[in-house]
Amino acid sequence: MLVYARRFFPVAAFFGGFVTDALTIGRRVTEMDFLRFGGYLAGAAVFALWLAWRERCEKTPPPPADTWRGQLARLIWQAPYLLMQFFYGGIFSALFILYFKSSGHLGAWLTAAVLGALLVGNEFAGDRYGRRFTLTWSLFALNAILLFNFVLPHLAGSLHPMWFYASTLAGVVLAHVLRALAPGRPGRIAPAWAIALTLLAAWNLGMIAPVPLVNREMAVGQDFVHADGRFALAVEEAPWWQIWYAQSTTVHIPPGERLYGVSAVFAPLGVAADLEHRWEVKENGVWRTFYSNRFHSSGGRERGFRGYSWVLDPKPGPWRFVVATQDGRTIGVLNVQVERGDPRMQARVEREF
Prior knowledge:
By secondary structure, the protein is α+β, with helices and mostly antiparallel strands.
């Protein structure tokens, strides 16, 4: 039993910090967050150079000892590996949460799942960062690229696709420079460039979430109120056993009435984005755009920039309400089944945005 406990101890060790990030990151992204993650990246760079210097000088680990001096020497020897795990883990944890919260379709969720796997794998990396420098440069490049995906749009106040290409190039070049500065230039840098090319391909396939935008809330319903800065919508409650749904997946619409959709999308202060609402209906097994509404958003509001749209007299059948950037990056999707009926006969609740 003790052996199994030790095996899974690394995952348990970071779980507390991960839960904290999950509850806080995505509610807002501030300059302090960027500084903290940048500090993690800088710390990983410093210890990568230190480990390269130690290998170049052919330093050897101190022998095991029972004395406190011997144990302290062993701890100091292991410290760079543990600290690199901490720095990479801190970045992976935040990136996984942010990319997951920004994902609105299967491809982007797969990318977030890969980050989640790297997050857990990092906890078992141990001293491989000091013995396999190719791994060190590759993970450094990946962290730098994904972190710059947030930082550059934030600094520029724009979500133009050019910033993704710029952040990808900046991240892999930084890893290349770090390896060039490392004594002896251990390991290979080619895998870092392969990671950059893979991310560019994923971006063009729509598998990269439109960070730093984060979908806060989406809902469809009736009796929409927009007055004095207040957005309120009456939505049908989900059945008691569907605790993972914020509203019922079936909506009832009387003939000739409107079905409203409301969204709240968070963006950091200073970031502007061109967004759109798309209403799609499934006909003959194919999703067809029925209506789209474009609007401009400015970041900074903690509960997210709000937008609304509506469709008149939607026909019964499967529909989906999509929030996306105007260049086609999906932020969130809400699928509903439209049926004829009086929504007032259903259990309803008012949601404010």
